[in-house]
Here is the input.
Amino acid sequence: MIGDFVIQHAPALLIAVPMLAAFATPLVGRLGGAARNAWVLAAMAATSVIGVMLAYDVYTTGTLIYTFGAAAPDAAVPMDSGGIPVRIIFTVDAMSAFMVIITAISGFAVLLYSMASESRASGRDGFYALYLLLIVGILGMVCTGDLFNFFVFLEIASLAGAALVAFRIDKGVAVEAGLKYAVISTIGGLFILFAIALLYGQYDALNIAVIASRMQFTVLDEIALVLLLSALAMKAGAVPMHFWTPDAYSMAPSSITALLVVASQASLYGVFRVVFTLYSVTLDYAVIGWIVIVLGVLSMFVGVTMALVQKDVKRLMAYHAVSQTGYMLLGLGVGLAVLGQPAALESFGLVAMEGGIFHIINHAMYKGLLFLTAGAIIYRTGARSLDKLGGLGHSMKWTMVFFIIGALAIAGVPPFNGFASKLLIYESVFLFNPILSIIAMVVSILTLASFVKVFHAIFMGPRQPEYAEVEEAPVPMLIGMGVLAAVVIAFGFAPQLVVDAIVAPAAAALANQGSYIAAVLGGV
Amino acid sequence: MRMSKVVRTAADILFPFVLIFGFYIVVHGHLTPGGGFQGGAVIATAIVLLIAAYGYDAIARRITKDALRNTEALGLIAFIATALVALALGAGFFYNWLAGTGLLFGMPVGFGPNPGDLNTGGTIPLMNLAVGIEVLGALSLIVLYMLSGTQEAA
Here is the structure.
């Protein structure tokens, strides 16, 4: 009974539950810290459960639509509207469901971790309210089927994210990083708003499916495409628009950094939604595909080479995040480049897309895990420079184990999940263009080298006198890291299961524009 | 810092009118330009007016940040609760469950050009009210925080 109700209204509840909880957090906070923590955890747990139920429903019964403000949520096109879906519609296809799963897992694990990691901070009512709003923003971005609504949720995520980056004022350094993030996000948001206006002016619609079905690819559409792609690639942290990531990622509290990674992935989702669903058939696949590929290769290479020279552990990881984003762009770019050739798509295009999409969830898990371990180290030692840290393997054993798991996963070493998705990318991209595949492998080797260095600097060596008092991280932080580590290992041992269950449907949903349009407009 | 008696008297006289004007903009949000945000901002300016006339300390003692924070949260919760009621009634999220029922704000909208009836719009005026409460709390809070920073210099 209640299960049916939740399933029927899952897309709305996915937004409503965390939003209501966020608004009530300042009031619940009056009852004390323990009550607030329980409230926030319960809200996030409910959101995650709803998210997973929604995803399961989408994977078993196909694309789900939810019309806000309608008497019946599944009625996308009102009787008297002349065949135009005038209302805001959430269109949750397999790709959206996939992103919802990522947010559900990361959001819960990171929240658990933050219960301990932020226990010494003041103003935690605001922190958790903003945390839940960031979750709302991410979930809204990946679920919505309405361009303007996408912009609104992007802004919610950006504002909450900027405030959270600045949460630890840190003598103004964190505030500067937060301001930078806010400015970059606003510029990106304005680009997107302008692009939406260009599309709305031509097609009298804001619904992605309607615009996609009417797309003419005029000069104005080309301008809109450039604006959308550049703004979303900037928000996703792709080179050459990556400059904000090291500041924002390194200055934010570590729990928030792990969530910002997911927020960046949501922007990446926006890139794919725009090229595969909004424009799709009107594009010159080879040209746009190669643009995405070049963005990806640049990100991979510049990211990892910048990471090699970093001394600050979180800055280093931030550059690696840029580098890993490149793999996703590469995989999806190859898929896009051959989207118009059924034979090539069948033989390697879809596999490349699956690799790229699989890498999104893998990256969110192991990169989140790595940022959380870095946060645990900073929490216990107060130091973040590789030159100062050392010998922590004696005292922080579990943190070290989790770091090893994350580091091996990001470097693509079997049997962890990074290897599984990278292998898909290597194999399929090799068939498309061997040089790209070789670059991807070289970047992986550099990543491994970089993390061996970090591992050695932080954990190896004799016990340092100034860290003699250092203890293992608190239990909630370990549980948070443990959840992500478990996912990393599970996905690494049974990659084929995961690919078949959630990744392949997502890739197929992206590649098939017609089914997305039909889900909203019916027919076809 | 208190201003002269002239300023204080003028503020006293203007204060209720500013409040009423703000409230007018909020409740007529579904008929005329304006709405919850604009009306709430106008009401917040009434508080700014009081601060200008009577000084930060006198007003901050009467209107506490905690009270404003509660107002803000209350407005937000009222907004989303209005949308959630639709779910309880078995319709979609944000469904306008009051429109056309004959209850509060529930009269059917007249056909053709007409001067506009306040008693229409269903949940839209309710949501305008909720947003008005939220914006009043949040903007006043921002003003108080900005001024509390400058206190030492004054």
